[in-house]
Write a structure and sequence with these properties.
By secondary structure, this protein is an alpha/beta fold. The protein folds into two domains: 2-148 and 258-361, P-loop containing nucleotide triphosphate hydrolases (Rossmann fold, 3-Layer(aba) Sandwich); 155-254, no CATH class. It contains eleven helices and 14 strands. The strands form three sheets. A six-stranded mixed β-sheet has the order 7-11-12-3-13-14, sandwiched between helices. It has a five-stranded antiparallel β-sheet with strand order 2-1-4-5-6, covered by helices on one side. Helix 1 (35-46) runs antiparallel to helix 3, helix 2 (48-58) packs across helix 3 (63-79) and helix 9 (271-286) packs across helix 10 (298-310). It is globular and about 60 Å long. The chain starts with a strand and ends with a helix. 39% of the residues are buried.
């Protein structure tokens, strides 16, 4: 789980320091305030140690070079930029720094009576227009641990899953690497014994889907209880999105202790589905999955806030409000939604209400 993310001169951010809760984290702000940039950076760091270890095991290069290669290539693939120099703030001195703190719970499955250990990992990365200059890895121990996370882009991908991985590896694509990562996660088959909370506590979104996703011959189908099936391309996009989330839980790609990054979950969902997704996200947080999401939807924000209050705020929640201030981005961090001084989605709803009143009453 990611605890902290610090940026200096990165894209639209001059200085930013975000502290994430272990439960539910919601990032809200108008277009151009860097919400997706924060999401992708946090995702990058959440997997960094595991991916660097994979590269190191396949190569005889020194560990420091492995880290440089990972961050340089991964930044370009996640942000689809020509060079990492493009990610440096235009009005900076040409230097950027990004750092993160990650906490990993190391389970002891063969000795369940022994409490799990906590592995603290800290990354510091400096780069310029020339490239990555310095990467420092500091970890509290050398236990064999794996950071796991799943990233859901704003656009669903199961409708174009067939042949995607082969095409991505062999051709130039405009899709960033979050789609490739998601395709790899979707390639896994279902677990024989998925966690019980999926069936018990996520019934609302299961009922919305009315069936189960099945991967067959490289294509996804929605299979109904009467064994009829339908191509996912004929299913509404909102249903495809929540079916994807359930499938990732059922095939073990997303488990307790992992982090789910979701960019605009409300995209192409009607209010009823948004309400059910908010409940599902809260359930996942209650079951030990860290959630970090971005949204433009005041409806989703209020649903999360209402659920939190109804359940006695039993899940640690943090709201991040991003707003433009001169040539910088200001970031508020609050534990309660009502403590954010400005929410663009709410401001626009109130402005719309005022326009409507003026229309009716001629003011």
């Amino acid at each position: 789980m990611i605890k902290q993310l610090t940026l200096q001169n990165f894209t639209v951010f001059k200085d930013a320091d975000l502290h994430f809760s272990s439960g539910l984290n919601v990032i809200v702000g108008e277009n151009g305030t860097g919400k997706t940039h924060l999401l992708k950076l946090a995702y990058l760091f959440s997997q960094a140690r595991y991916r660097c270890d994979l590269i190191k095991n396949k190569s005889s290069n020194l560990e420091a070079k492995v880290h440089h290669d990972y961050f340089s290539e991964r930044l370009q693939e996640l942000f689809k930029c020509d060079s990492i120099g493009s990610l440096i703030s235009a009005d900076s001195d040409g230097q950027s720094k990004i750092s993160a703190s990650i906490t990993i719970n190391i389970q002891t499955p063969h000795e369940p009576e022994i409490p799990s250990l906590s592995d603290e990992i800290k990354w510091n990365c400096w780069f310029s227009h020339i490239g990555i200059s310095t990467v420092i890895l500091d970890r509290s121990n050398d236990n064999d641990s794996r950071e796991k996370s799943v990233y859901l882009p704003s656009k669903e991908m199961i409708s174009f899953f067939e042949g995607f991985l082969a095409a991505y590896e062999n051709r130039e694509f405009q899709f960033d690497e979050t789609y490739r990562d998601l395709a790899l996660n979707l390639s896994n088959n279902r677990l024989k014994n998925p966690p019980k909370f999926i069936e018990q506590d996520l019934k609302l979104i299961s009922d919305n889907i009315e069936g189960k996703l099945k991967l067959e011959g490289g294509r996804f189908y929605l299979v109904f209880p009467n064994h009829d099936r339908r191509e996912v391309t004929l299913v509404a996009e909102g249903i495809r999105k929540i079916a994807t989330l359930l499938y990732l839980l059922e095939n073990g790609s997303l488990q307790v202790g992992d982090t789910l990054f979701w960019d605009e979950p409300e995209s192409n969902l009607n209010p009823k589905l948004i309400k059910n997704v908010a409940s599902a996200l809260y359930v996942l947080s209650e079951n030990g999955i860290q959630i970090i999401l971005t949204t433009h939807s005041y409806f989703l924000l209020k649903e999360i806030d209402l659920i939190s209050r109804l359940k006695g705020n039993n899940v640690e929640t943090t709201y991040f409000g991003l707003s433009k201030l001169d040539n910088d981005i200001c970031i508020e961090q609050e534990k309660k939604l009502q403590d954010l001084s400005s929410i663009v989605a709410l401001d626009e709803e109130l402005t719309q209400y005022d326009r409507e009143q003026s229309l009716y009453y001629g003011n």
